[in-house]
Amino acid sequence: MMKKCPKCDVDLKTKSIGPVEVDECPTCRGTWFDKDELRQAEDVTDSDLDWMDFEIWKHEKEFRSKASTLQCPTCHKPTASLHYGDTAVTIDYCQSCLGTWLDKGEFKKIIHAMEKEILSKPSSEYMKETLREGAEIVAHPQRFLSEWKDFVTVLRLMQYRFFAEHPTLRNTMTSMQKTVQ
Question: Which H or E run includes 63?
Answer without folding.
Answer: strand 63-71
